[in-house]
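---------- Forwarded message ----------

FYI, see the Histidine phosphatase family protein record below. Original note from H. follows.
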Amino acid sequence: MATIGLIRHGITEWNIAGRAQGLADIPLNGEGREQAVRLAGRLSKEPWDLMISSHLCRSRETAEIIAAAAGIGEHLIDERICEMDCGQLEGLNEAEWLGRWGPEWRSLELGMEKAEDVSHRGVFFLEELYTRYPDKKVLVVSHGALIGLTLQHLLPQVFTTTYIDNASLTLLTKINNNWDCLLYNCVEHLV
């Protein structure tokens, strides 16, 4: 039985400023690196077989810190688990969105990737991962929207919100062809 650990990357300056990062390649800040180190300390107490991360540097750096501390030799990059493309919202915060497009900005075509496309991308990735590594423990470092929307698609009765904390850990497994969430959005290692 595979266990998949979903990790949202550590915090960035744009996270703090409330700016939509999307596909912008924004690095971790000092706090984000410290979050990754703390999560690595937690994960180093368990055996993990493989690490996969998004190609964006905030995700990749989080994965590299964890893999080094936890002794995970294999670190793969997969662009399918990158963040939602935020289109014209990238680099801006909500006040700026409202200033440019008004309170109905969500109804406008601003070049954003559709939520259902993001969730399908995430579900397809997890299904393939489960098939390819049926008896492995795999860590996946990705992004808040991708993780949240994927969980909501897999287990809609459980996940009514898509919010995921930076440097959080969520554990999934699949039993009798049904996905199960063993741990959700855990940040106890950051306290």
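H. also flagged this: The longest strand covers residues 178-186.
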